[in-house]
Design brief:
Rossmann fold, single chain, 8-stranded mixed beta sheet, 273 residues
């Protein structure tokens, strides 16, 4: 009986310790941020929630994250106005910490209301979605008028980013293609069409897409950048299934290498005039 009690106590202690070490990234983000709020923007695609977080009062950069997958962050505010979400382990949230630590503001765009809870690859190229992102960008510019505003389109979010690069008057100071799902572009798009500064970043072991008998995202990203555009290929080990496209950990989400990821993007953003 005594041995059983000791075993149970050790088990509970281990669960507590590992539970603290593996806190959901959203909770960690909320603990880090001094500014943490939901901005609701009335756009042509309906109300669009934007999670805005920051440590510095006057950040030099605002990084705006367009999530991959179906774009769903499910963000809202509680009665006190504190941001909450039903998807606390969304792979989008681990990206934020490095930017906050460098005193940049970080914003993440949820799915516009008219699309329901998810947005498809095809819908990301619709004019109303393009215009909605522009309206979100202008709202964030009102919040931080002196900062450089950088859009990061990750995975399917790369479609959102791509559509912004070809607008006649881009509203972002720079656009990052983060492990972009370029094979899913429903329109003919080439980096040479971009009217805003762009960079590409990928992990060399990102084999997302290879399971569907197409080139993996890493290869497509490298090919798209070619020799004309800034490209960072992260080579440090990243755990998880190399072909995983939807759930971290995986190289597709830059698991365990977010420091290198953030540094590369910051270095490029700082070079923009």
């Amino acid at each position: 009986m005594q041995r059983l009690l000791i075993f149970l106590l050790l088990t509970l202690h281990a669960q507590f310790v590992f539970g603290q070490a593996e806190r959901p990234a959203f909770h960690t983000l909320m603990e880090m941020a001094k500014v943490k709020k939901i901005i609701t923007v009335d756009t042509v695609a309906g109300k669009t929630n934007v999670l805005l977080t920051a440590i510095a009062d006057n950040p030099a950069f605002v990084f705006i994250f367009a999530p991959g997958g179906e774009g769903t962050l499910a963000i809202d505010a509680d009665a006190d106005g504190t941001p909450i979400t039903k998807r606390v382990r969304n792979p989008a949230y681990p990206f934020a910490a490095g930017f906050l630590e460098r005193r940049a503001a970080w914003a993440a765009i949820d799915v516009p209301e008219s699309y329901g809870i998810a947005i498809s690859r095809e819908q990301r190229q619709e004019q109303r979605h393009i215009d909605a992102i522009v309206q979100v960008a202008r709202k964030l510019r009102e919040e931080y008028p002196k900062a450089k505003h950088i859009l990061i389109g990750h995975s399917n979010g790369g479609i959102t980013a791509g559509m912004q690069t070809i607008q006649p008057a881009p509203v972002f100071d720079g656009i990052v293609f983060s492990a972009p799902n370029l094979s899913a572009f429903p329109v003919s798009w080439e980096p040479q069409q971009a009217k805003a500064p762009i960079m590409f970043i990928t992990h060399q072991h990102d084999d997302c897409g290879a399971a569907r008998r197409s080139l993996p995202i890493s290869a497509r990203t490298i090919a798209a950048a070619g020799s004309r555009f800034p490209l960072t290929v992260i080579k440090s080990p990243s755990p998880g299934n190399r072909q995983e496209c939807f759930v971290a950990p995986a190289p597709h989400f830059f698991t365990n290498v977010h420091g290198e990821y953030t540094e590369a993007i910051f270095r490029w953003a700082s070079s923009l005039k």
